[in-house]
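I had to read the description of the data format several times before I understood it. In essence, backbone conformation is discretised, so a fold becomes a row of integers matching the chain in length. I therefore recommend that a typical entry be quoted early in the introduction. For illustration, here is how one protein appears when written out as sequence plus structure tokens.

***
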Amino acid sequence: MVENLEKLLQNWEGSVTTYMPKILVAVVVLVIFILLAKLVKNASISMYSKSIKVHPEIANILASLIYFFFILSGVFLSLKILGLEEMLTHLLAGAGIIGIIAGFAFKDIASNIFAGLLLKVQRPYKIGDWVSIDDQYGLVQDVGWITTSIKTVPGQEVFVPNQIVYSSTFTNYSTWGKRRIILKTGVSYGDDLEHVKTVALDEVKKIAQLLPEEGVDFYYTDIGSSTYDFILRFWIKFESNDDFCRGMDGAITSIKKRFEQENISIAYPVTTLDFGVKGGVNLFDKSINIKS
């Protein structure tokens, strides 16, 4: 029993004597790499801030990547000094497997984070803009790394994943500070088309929200089953959705009122009854006799 204990102590003494210098060197190397990582991180942030004064979050991301690169390099070099190459190989293999599993598990999160980074750089919209993303129309409340928060017109807060912005089309209505209103309707066959056009253009030019320098367009677009269809297009100053609603409301209200004054009929579906006469017969052209 005593002999076995003496052999064990001798083996420990030999192991400590053999590995102690390697352990000290490995610790020194790791400390040096940690200090170097902090130094390079601070230097990169300072350099980026002086040369490029926008998007500070990008500087933090790049600096963090450099920091972790130096830390991992120090760990791998320390393990190699200790002669633990086999352990290092197992660590790398395990990291690879874990990376594959994590890639499948968090691919959507990673896509959203990368899309969030692109949004921070490109800035296609900002807080306070009116946008339509994935059929969600509203006011941008926050642009995060994973989602964009939108307050819709009904008042709900909707979170849209950032990757949707770059996987489909979206619209920013606040980019130009103006918005175009397109009003579609029609008049009856009996109305004078030139008179209709003159009246409609005259009324639109009286709208308070109108941007007159942008011009007003009026086009007849189709001969419908009971109407001459037309579109009326004009630009208004746009700061909120209320501006658009007021512009549309003003156009509809004023045009209807003026059409009534000018005896212009906004058409509605009409059915023609054919009694064997080409083109049909208007029942009100002749009096109707009712026999008992």
Observations:
- The chain is about 50% helix and 20% strand.
- The chain has three domains: 2-105, 125-172, 178-261.
